[in-house]
UniProtKB/TrEMBL annotation:
It holds the Pfam family ATP12. It comes from Sinocyclocheilus rhinocerous. One of its GO terms (biological process) is mitochondrial proton-transporting ATP synthase complex assembly. The keyword Cell inner membrane does not apply. This is ATP synthase mitochondrial F1 complex assembly factor 2. Belongs to the ATP12 family. One of its GO terms (cellular component) is mitochondrion. Keywords: Chaperone, Mitochondrion, Transit peptide.
Length: 264
């Protein structure tokens, strides 16, 4: 399971504030050793909570992180800065997780994947799951030439070893940074299938989030909800999921973005 960076540091008695007053006013990018990009706040280089120099592998990700800082107003709200948090996690790696451990954790989601578990009643939800989830399941099985299936058992379907091996090989093709982002998406959606659909651009962020909340949305339509709370939860999940997907793609990006950012 993806370990939320701030929580990990709290367990190690290293407090990470959720917000603080903003003191820096000017932001800029610079390229340092090994072609890595750094972010400068006024004349100071950004550091991770673990004290490392904050560096990212390409300009595209550097621009995205700098923009995330730049849109903050008088108070820095770190809980809204998902790209920064993901970079900190990849850089500090506070629990020293390897690619193998991240891949193993991601594969475990297959056993309890959101869209693999199907209800037997009520009929309306049964039909909704079939109509909305089956096309995605059919897509991923054809896309990766695997068998996953679904089950009404709380234990989930029996995933063939060949399927696990195929996904393991695919996940192993990602670098450690991309895996960090992908695991974050999987944790948000509680689904490896929906996450692959999103990263492969078969699903939009909005579609992936709605599909991950299908039962909840069904119950809301049937019984009603507290509108503002529902909307807030939905937008927050969309924001986290979108940030994770961006992080995956940008962490794999090797070409530089040729444009100037952050005017005086």
């Amino acid at each position: 399971m993806f370990l939320v960076y701030q929580h990990t540091y709290k367990r190690q008695n290293m407090p990470v504030p959720q917000q603080r007053e903003r003191s820096s006013t000017r932001m800029s990018l610079s390229q340092g050793e090994g072609g890595l990009f750094e972010i400068n706040l006024d004349k100071q280089k950004l550091k991770t909570p673990g004290g490392k120099l904050f560096t990212v592998p390409n300009e595209a990700l550097a621009i995205a992180v700098a923009t995330e800082w730049d849109v903050q107003e008088d108070t820095l709200k770190f809980y809204t800065m998902h790209l920064t948090t993901l970079c900190n996690t990849a850089l500090d790696n506070p629990t020293q997780r390897t690619k193998e451990r991240i891949i193993s954790a991601a594969l475990k989601f297959l056993e309890t994947d959101t869209i693999c578990y199907r209800v037997e009643e009520p009929p309306g939800l049964v039909e909704l799951q079939r109509n909305e989830w089956d096309p995605v399941m059919n897509w991923i099985e054809q896309r990766y030439n695997v068998v996953i299936g679904s089950s009404s058992s709380i234990m989930g379907p029996q995933i063939p070893e060949e399927t696990k091996e195929t996904f393991q090989q695919h996940l192993n093709s990602y670098n450690l940074w991309s895996l960090t982002g992908l695991e974050y998406v999987i944790t948000q959606l509680k689904s490896l299938v929906l996450s692959f659909g999103l990263i492969d651009r078969h699903l939009s962020v909005e579609q992936a989030v709605v599909l991950s909340r299908l039962e909840e949305e069904y119950q809301i339509q049937r019984w009603g909800n507290v509108e503002w709370a529902h909307d807030y939860d939905m937008y927050e999940l969309q924001a986290r999921t979108a940030a994770g997907a961006m992080f995956v793609h940008m962490s794999s990006e090797s070409t530089a973005v040729k444009r100037k950012i952050l005017q005086d």
